[in-house]
């Protein structure tokens, strides 16, 4: 199923009564980046889309307008996880290299805890602009390898290894390996 990232961003921006320049100023990104995304000529990184949505403000779950999960739901089938990111890469065609997918368990806001099942294909990168947000996060590598940068610390983690840090410290995730990396992570309060 196709998702029009550019059309959705334009719709939300206009509903908020913002020009492209106003949203760029609020988000700390260039006007041209917003223009290219809205024209579907640029597929934003997770970090870029998150910055833009902060200027509205809106979560990625709300951006993708998924059906809401009942707050009292306890158990989730694989198909119940909420896809937050895989549709960002449709602009670039069907190639899987560099793609990532973050799928959220349930209603993160209701529980003040975001649990993600993450896939990073070889070459996937959260973006050159380091992520930074008011949360704490951690995760466990299930398969593959993932390079994680937190401040001035860099480490490549393998299956069974884990991370835990204050998300206010600039950070980045990259799959520099040759196989898909699978991670289960948690973040509180929710970021995406």
UniProtKB/TrEMBL annotation:
Keyword Protein transport attached: no
Cross-referenced SUPFAM superfamilies: lambda repressor-like DNA-binding domains (SSF47413), RmlC-like cupins (SSF51182)
Any one GO MF annotation of this record: DNA-binding transcription factor activity
CDD domains linked: cupin_XRE_C, HTH_XRE
SMART domains hit by this protein: HTH_XRE (SM00530)
InterPro entries membership: Cro/C1-type_HTH, Cupin_2, Lambda_DNA-bd_dom_sf, RmlC-like_jellyroll, RmlC_Cupin_sf, TransReg_Diox_bact_type
Keyword line: DNA-binding
Signal peptide interval: none
Coiled coil: none
Cellular component, GO annotation: cytosol
Keyword Ubl conjugation appears in the UniProt entry: no
Limits of the HTH cro/C1-type domain: 9-63
Gene3D superfamilies xrefs: Jelly Rolls, lambda repressor-like DNA-binding domains
Name assigned to this protein: Cupin domain-containing protein
Organism: Bosea spartocytisi
């Amino acid at each position: 199923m196709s998702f029009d990232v550019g059309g959705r961003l334009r719709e939300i921006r206009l509903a908020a009564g913002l020009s492209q320049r106003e949203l760029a100023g609020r988000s700390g990104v260039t006007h041209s980046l917003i223009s290219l995304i809205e024209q579907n000529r640029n597929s934003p990184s997770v970090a870029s889309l998150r910055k833009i949505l902060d200027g509205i403000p809106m979560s990625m779950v709300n951006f993708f307008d998924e059906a809401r999960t009942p707050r009292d739901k306890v158990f989730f089938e694989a198909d119940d996880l909420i896809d937050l990111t895989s549709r960002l890469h449709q602009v670039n065609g069907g190639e899987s290299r560099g793609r990532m997918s973050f799928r959220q368990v349930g209603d993160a806001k209701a529980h003040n805890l975001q649990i993600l099942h993450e896939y990073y294909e070889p070459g996937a990168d959260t973006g050159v602009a380091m992520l930074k947000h008011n949360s704490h996060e951690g995760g466990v590598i299930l398969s593959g390898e993932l390079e994680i940068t937190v401040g001035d610390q860099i480490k490549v983690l393998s299956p069974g290894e884990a991370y835990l840090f204050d998300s206010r410290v600039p950070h980045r995730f990259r799959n520099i390996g040759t196989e898909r990396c699978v991670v289960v992570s948690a973040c509180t309060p929710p970021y995406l």
